[in-house]
């Protein structure tokens, strides 16, 4: 490698952008962001629900079992979306590695 071809300093932003664009196909970005948004929404709602049912005056007409059942359902939904997000993230990283290595090998 000649001195003209070498770069010094930090990694260029184009390398980061290349990595981000290789994570998932363009059509999958919106559904993936939607899954993340739903998971975060469920997490926020879980916290709100626990704070709400903790006060005895509010929602006193709802039985204890219903309150716990709703919280358990929220936890289950949160777990499902967490697993989906983790699986999609793992496949995205695997795809990114494959795409970047194919690009590197095609330039050799």
Low-confidence stretches: none
| Beta strands, count | 0
Total helices: the number is 3
How many domains, in number, for the residues?
A: 1
Please give the alpha-carbon distance between the first and last residues: 13 Å
Shape: elongated
- SS-derived structural category: mainly alpha
Report strand %: under 5%
The averaged pLDDT comes out at 86
Give the biggest beta sheet.
none
What value does the Rg take, in angstroms? 23 Å
Short description:
Helix content is 73%, strand content 0%. The protein has 108 residues and is mostly helical.
Which features does this protein show?
mainly alpha, 108 residues, nucleotide-binding, ATPase-coupled transmembrane transporter activity
What do you see in this structure?
It is a single chain. By secondary structure, the chain is an all-alpha fold. The chain has one domain (23-106). The protein is 73% helix and 0% strand. The chain is built from three helices and no strands. The chain has helices at residues 13-23, 29-53, 64-106. Helix 1 (13-23) crosses helix 3 and helix 2 packs antiparallel against helix 3 (64-106). The protein is elongated and about 75 Å long. The mean pLDDT is 86.
């Amino acid at each position: 490698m000649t001195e003209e071809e070498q770069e010094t300093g930090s990694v260029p932003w184009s390398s980061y952008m290349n990595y981000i664009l290789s994570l998932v196909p363009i059509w999958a970005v919106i559904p993936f962001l939607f899954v993340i948004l739903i998971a975060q929404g469920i997490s926020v709602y879980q916290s709100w629900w626990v704070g709400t049912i903790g006060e005895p005056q509010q929602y006193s007409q709802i039985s204890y079992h219903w309150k716990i059942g709703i919280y358990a359902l929220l936890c289950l939904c949160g777990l499902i979306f967490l697993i989906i997000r983790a699986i999609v993230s793992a496949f995205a990283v695997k795809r990114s590695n494959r795409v970047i290595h194919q690009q590197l090998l095609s330039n050799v």
